[in-house]
Design brief:
Length: 352
């Protein structure tokens, strides 16, 4: 049962958890959505002389025009506006994104009609990735106030020439106050599986090591830190990078202080994914949380549940790839969205 509270910020829906969860006692909660979305090459249509974006220009191989760019923005904004809205009444309070070319495309995105009234702020750094794609965090200014943020470069090198750096995406750490409570968010886009999963695995292991280093630094300052690390990891929840390096656990009851819980692993075990390849599903897009968010007193914001936002309109409606994410570009603009489904989680706390 969902209802709007009279004395709560209009952007936060008050809802009642099931009686079975709370021993027949109806309680009311504030809810905020935190989400992540791979935007599948959200490029503008102008040539950047310092990156390899030539294909995404009107004269390039993809014939990426102003009209196509605007259609892509419209589609991305539609999806973002709807993630979590059925529960919270609004779009995500915090949204990590990847595969955005620059600050301009994000400015254009948050100024689309479905999002402009949400007054999103943007935290983004230009990554050294050769294609020019970045990670970023979008946040509703009325709900979240950033206090610190930093981009951490991932230093990896060509396996055939250890003096040659492989330039890839930074990892973005943003700390701030969500409705008055401190929270840390790390946005990731780990190296791809280009060249094969096994051959490229060391690069993602290094990405996981950097992520673990960032997380451990937060824990060293506060063992009870509320941390969400999210992103397109290009690995599944059971991959060595996640299980062995991050040591993210599937069972929340096994998670101790300064440890991590991965709610996506149970979904992956059930065959749920965020992208499909050769008739099999991967769950590369993940939301992983720290122990402090798992407590069940709900006096402050806690993790409630996570999910894959895979509404039917986001799936390819026909053909060989029916049911796969309806990607926006295959030998031309398709009218679709992204080759990844978004992922999300709900943070809740009890209303006094």
């Amino acid at each position: 049962m969902f209802m709007i509270g009279r004395n709560i910020l209009s952007l936060l829906l008050i809802f009642s958890l099931s009686a079975s969860l709370y021993a027949q006692q109806e309680k009311q909660y504030k809810v905020n959505t935190v989400a992540f979305y791979n935007l599948e090459n959200l490029f503008d249509y102008e040539d950047d002389p310092v990156t390899f974006d030539d294909d995404r220009t009107p004269e390039g191989k993809d014939h990426w025009t102003k009209e196509i760019y605007e259609a892509k923005l419209k589609n991305m904004a539609k999806v973002i506006a709807e993630i979590g809205r059925d529960v919270t009444g609004t779009s995500p309070a915090l949204l990590g994104v990847c595969e955005s070319e620059n600050r301009r495309v994000l400015d254009d995105l948050v100024n689309q009609e479905p999002l402009v009234d949400k007054n999103y702020g943007i935290i983004q750094f230009d990554s050294p990735d050769r294609r020019g794609i970045d990670v970023a965090l979008l946040y509703q200014k009325r709900l979240f106030t950033p206090t610190n943020y930093k981009a951490y470069p991932l230093m990896i090198y060509d396996e055939d020439d250890r003096t040659k750096r492989v330039y890839t995406r930074d990892q973005l750490l943003v700390s701030g106050m969500l409705d008055g409570e401190k929270i840390h968010v790390i946005v990731n886009h780990w190296p791809s599986r280009s060249g094969g999963e096994a051959r490229s695995r060391p690069k993602r292991m290094r990405a996981a090591e950097l992520n673990k280093k960032i997380i451990d630094s937060l824990f060293s300052e506060d063992p009870y830190a509320k941390i969400i690390t999210m992103g397109d990891l290009n690995d599944d929840p059971t991959s060595p990078s996640v299980k062995e390096v991050l040591e993210a656990k599937e069972d929340r009851d096994d998670v101790d202080i300064k440890e991590l819980y991965n709610p996506m692993e149970e979904m992956y075990d059930k065959g749920i994914g965020t992208l499909a390849w050769r008739d099999s599903w991967n769950l590369f897009d993940q939301m992983i949380v720290s122990h402090e968010l798992l407590k069940k007193d709900y006096a402050t914001y806690r993790f409630y549940k996570a999910g894959v936002y895979n509404k039917s309109y986001l799936a390819n409606p026909r053909g060989r790839y029916q049911g796969y994410p309806y990607r926006s570009f295959v030998n031309g603009f398709t009218g679709g969205y992204s080759d990844h489904f978004p992922v999300y989680l709900y943070l809740i706390k009890e209303v006094n």
